[in-house]
Fold Transcriptional regulator.
Amino acid sequence: MKLTSFELDVMQYLWQQGEATSPQVHTNIAKNRDVTYSTVKTIIDRLEQKKVIKRHRVDGRTIYYQAVVTPKEVQKPMLKHMLQKLFAGNKKVLMNQLFEQEELSQEDIQYLENLIKRNKKS
């Protein structure tokens, strides 16, 4: 599953809200993008065609949309794609890039140490 940056913005909003109307999505997206309502509606229609959102309920003429996939279901294939395209599949280079770009807190380090320990047991 491949989603564009714009589609991911819509999905993030739906994951946060649980459900939303097209106007609500537009209002939220328009805070960070210069975009018309019709463009947002086109993205919503595209996401519906991709079967990652659905019409959850109708209240009069108002349609509420809801995500039907979890963030993890979207993240996993997109991360694999990014790993291949940007890092030629080399996980070490990806991790090195992350550690060089982001300062890790003690909590982050502890989490990573626990993750490594769990994976060593497998």
